[in-house]
Amino acid sequence: MNAMSKPTIDTNMSEALRAVFRTADKAQRQKLVPILPPEVVEFAGVSMYVDPRDNYTDRMIWRDGQPPEIRSLVALTELVEGRNAFILDIGANSGAFTIPLAVAAGTGSRVIAFEPNPTMIGRLGHNIRLNGLGDVVRIEGCALGDATGEAILNFRARNFGQASLMPIKPGVRDGGTLVPVRPLLDFVHEADGHDISILKIDVEGAEVAVLGPLLTAGGWLPDALLVETDHANKWDVDLAGRIKELGFKITLEAEQNTLFVRKGAA
After folding, report:
1. DSSP H or E run through 85
2. How far apart are CA 117 and CA 140, in angstroms?
3. Which of 37, 86, 116, 266 has CB atoms 3.0–4.6 Å from 9's, for a disulfide?
4. Closest by alpha carbon to 153, among 114, 118, 183, 103?
5. pLDDT in tens, 37-85
6. Pairing of strands 46-50, 39-43
7. What is the pTM of this model?
8. Most distant CA atoms of the chain, gap in Å
9. What is the C-alpha to C-alpha distance for residues 109 and 87, in angstroms, rounded to an integer?
C-alpha cells in the first residue's frame, strides 16, 4: 500500500481498534501496533494524516484525537495566533507543531520545518498540502548541527519520531541513513520583517550542537524557545541556564518540554 493511500479499513473497525488499544496493556499494544490503520485525524481546524504503525506522535494523535504535547502546542499557538510570525520547527516529524502553528499564525507568516527523515518528510509534505499551507511552510530536509556536513540519522524501531544523530543502542536501532547537516545560523536572517519569532526544538539529545552556536553568537535570538529538556542530564552544557542568562524566563514546563520567553518580547 502506498504510504499516503486512503486507508481501506472501515470506520467502525477503526473505532473498535482504537477502543481496544486505549485499554490494552503494554504487551497487547505492541502486538496491535502493526495492524493499526493510517487515518486523517481532525482537531482544532487542522487535518493530520497519521500512521500509528511507525511513529509514536502519530500513534497518540490516532488514539487521542490530538497531539501528545498539547499543552506545549497550545502555549505556542497563543503566542503566534493572528500575528505575522517566523517559526522554526526543528525536528518537525509529521507536523504536529508545524501544521497547527501555521494555521494559527497571521498573514505574512513563514514556518521553516526541519526534518531529515525521508519517510517523515513525505508525511509532513502531505500534511502541508492537506491543510493548504504550501505558501506558508517550507520543508528543509536536513538535520541541524554546529557545522555544515553530513551525518548518519539513526532510526528507532516503530518510532520514526525518535530518529536521532545521537547513538541508539543496538537492540532498539533499526538502521539509519546519511543526511545533510547545516547550522541553524544559516536560517535565522529570514526572521527579518516578522512581528514575532518562535523556535521549537526536539532533536533527541542533540540540542547542544544545534542551539550552542546560536546562543553564543551574540546576534539574533527568537522571542520564545520551546526546548525538549528530557535529555538535559546528558548535555555537556547547561543550555537552560545559558538561555535564562540571555534574558528569557521559563513560562511553562510540561510534556518533557520547557518554554522560554524573552522578557518583553511576547
Report:
1. strand 85-90
2. 11
3. 37
4. 118
5. 999 999 999 999 999 999 999 999 999 999 999 999 999 999 999 999 9
6. antiparallel
7. 0.93
8. 56
9. 8
Q: pLDDT (tens digit, 9 = 90+) per residue, 175-200?
A: 999 999 999 999 999 999 999 999 99
Q: Which among 46, 57, 97 is positioned nearest to 200, based on CA atoms?
A: 97
Kindly provide the b/e burial profile for residues 102-132, where b requires at least 16 CB atoms within 10 angstroms of the residue's own CB. Answer: bbbbeeebbbbbbbbbebbbebbbbbbebbe
For residues 227 and 211, the answer to whether their CB atoms sit within 8 Å is: yes
Report, as an integer, the average pLDDT of 235-261. Answer: 96
Do residues 46 and 100 touch, judged by C-beta distance below 8 A?
yes
CA 199 vs CA 33, 37, 185, 216, 229: distances in Å: 32, 32, 12, 16, 14
Distance, in Å, from the CA atom of 249 to the CA atom of 213, rounded to the nearest integer, reads: 20
Across 149-155, average pLDDT? 96
Question: What is the band of 266 on the pLDDT scale with cuts at 50, 70, 90?
Answer: low
CB-based contact 56:67 (threshold 8 Å): no
* 56: phi then psi, degrees, rounded to nearest 5: -60, -45
CB-CB contact of 247 with 263 (8 Å): yes
Q: Can you read off the three cell numbers belonging to residue 127?
A: 500534511
Return d(Cα 102, Cα 129) in angstroms, integer.
12
Instruction: Write down the number of H helices and E strands in the chain.
Output: 8, 13
What average pLDDT does this structure show over 208-219? 95
Q: What is the predicted pLDDT for the residue at 78? A: 97
Task: Please give the pLDDT value at position 179.
Answer: 97
Give the Cα separation of 5 and 51 in Å (integer): 11
CB-based burial of residue 199 (10 Å sphere; 0-12 exposed, 13-18 middle, 19+ buried)? buried
Rounded to whole angstroms, the Cα distance separating 35 from 9 reads 10
End-to-end CA distance of the chain: 45
